[in-house]
Amino acid sequence: MHRGVTGDYESAATTGEAVKAFVPRPLPPDPPLTLANSRQLLLERATLALGRLDSITLLLPDPNIFLYAYVRREAVLSSQIEGTQSTLADLLLFELEESPGVPFDDVVEVSGYVAALEHGVDRLRAEFPLSNRLIREMHAILLSKGRGSEKSPGDFRRSQNWIGGTRPGNAHFVPPPPHRIEDCMAALERFIHDDHSPYPTLVKAALAHVQFETIHPFLDGNGRVGRLLIAFMLHHGGVLSKPLLYLSLYFKQHRSEYYRLLDLVRTEGDWETWLDFFLEGVEDTASNAVRTAQSLVHLFKEDAIRVQAGGRSASTVLRVFNALCTRPITTINDICQRAGLSFPAATKGIERLVDLGIVKERTGGRRNRVFAYDRYLGLLNEGTEPL
């Protein structure tokens, strides 16, 4: 449905130029969304896919293993959309704190995303509400180090920003003036918590994401926080027991269409076309996550059987293998700590896994060696090549 422009233009001045800033009207859309039969079918399919994703906690021997890896994969993808060049391997090496040579600025940025996400999960688990305060807390952690740390982490912006173009005058889009941010974000928070809304949580998450990106309340990090908001709304709304739905790969693969549809909402009020795109992405992403989890379970079982066939040393090797299932890039010191083994025992165990072809040594040196569970990394790496 084409409702016309979904906000009002307000004159603003920045860097010596007068611009027309866009102030979105509060949600929900008016007139209401048209949930035709085909769109209702998309909603049902996306909801079923989310149900299957939520049920993987029953499939996995330790759901936190998948959450650990999947969160880091999402951090890499979401940060790549913003221009970083880090890979998943870079991040895992950085987290070992004993492997120099990774691209520091980029990987610090990705690491901040992981920390922000985990902070949000912990707060929601402690029954803290999904609120502007929590959004600001996560933003503060996201930009606490590296690039963006000078751009008011944790605070809504007090100056005008713009999207695209070399200056405000030729920008692709100019978000609301800074004095309108508090009101816009307060209205968005009320919409998120509106228990009388006629829309299910999944539809509300689709609408809230566009609204957040349109408000662009921070000087930096808006894209990453806006993508996190989707997962946190589904988790907070009880659709997912863990925030496991991350759309960064889908948005990365369809970047031009994603930005086109955001513009279409703002200029023509076509929320329905955006919603169709969003629901297709949810179904696709959730289904892929389930397939990845199933593949990991199969891989772990297959390799564990190979390890257990190794005779008297199998129990020690299995402890090393289990440590690699939780952290697919590791060092012997790291294995000693997490598997509770002596350095000689951990060394023999990892070398046995190398002999079996399960693990590869990455450095080629004799000291400070780094080992990788390559097939595990391969399952996680789909689509994570830098742009």
Describe the structure.
With 387 residues, this protein is mainly alpha-helical. It folds into two domains: 7-291, Fido-like domain (Fic-like fold); 309-380, Winged helix-like DNA-binding domain superfamily/Winged helix DNA-binding domain (Arc Repressor Mutant, subunit A, Orthogonal Bundle), CATH 1.10.10. Helix content is 58%, strand content 6%. It is built from 16 helices and five strands. It has helices spanning 37-54, 56-59, 63-81, 88-96, 104-125, 132-142, 181-192, 201-215, 222-236, 248-253, 255-268, 271-308, 314-326, 332-339, 343-355, 374-380; strands at 7-14, 17-24, 329-330, 360-361, 371-372. Helix 1 runs parallel beside helix 12 and helix 8 (201-215) packs across helix 12. The longest helix has 38 residues, at 271-308. The mean pLDDT is 90.
Summary, kept brief:
This protein is mainly alpha-helical. Helices cover 58% and strands 6% of the residues. The protein is built from 16 helices and five strands.
Topology:
Elements: E1 7-14, E2 17-24, H1 37-54, H2 56-59, H3 63-81, H4 88-96, H5 104-125, H6 132-142, H7 181-192, H8 201-215, H9 222-236, H10 248-253, H11 255-268, H12 271-308, H13 314-326, E3 329-330, H14 332-339, H15 343-355, E4 360-361, E5 371-372, H16 374-380
Antiparallel strand pairs: 1-2, 3-5, 4-5
List the main descriptive attributes of the protein structure presented here.
387 residues; mainly alpha; Fic-like fold; Arc Repressor Mutant, subunit A; three-stranded antiparallel sheet; two-stranded antiparallel ribbon; globular
The percent range for strand residues is: 5-15%
The helical percent reads: 55-70%
Written as H for each helix and E for each strand, in order along the chain, the element string is EEHHHHHHHHHHHHHEHHEEH
Q: Extract low-pLDDT stretches.
A: none
**How many strands?**
5
Q: How large is the count of helical segments?
A: 16
For the largest beta-sheet, the strand count, sense and barrel status come to:
3 strands, antiparallel
Q: Give the averaged pLDDT, no decimals.
A: 90
Q: Radius of gyration, rounded?
A: 23 Å
Provide the CATH top-level class of the largest domain: Mainly Alpha
User: Class by helix and strand content?
Assistant: mainly alpha
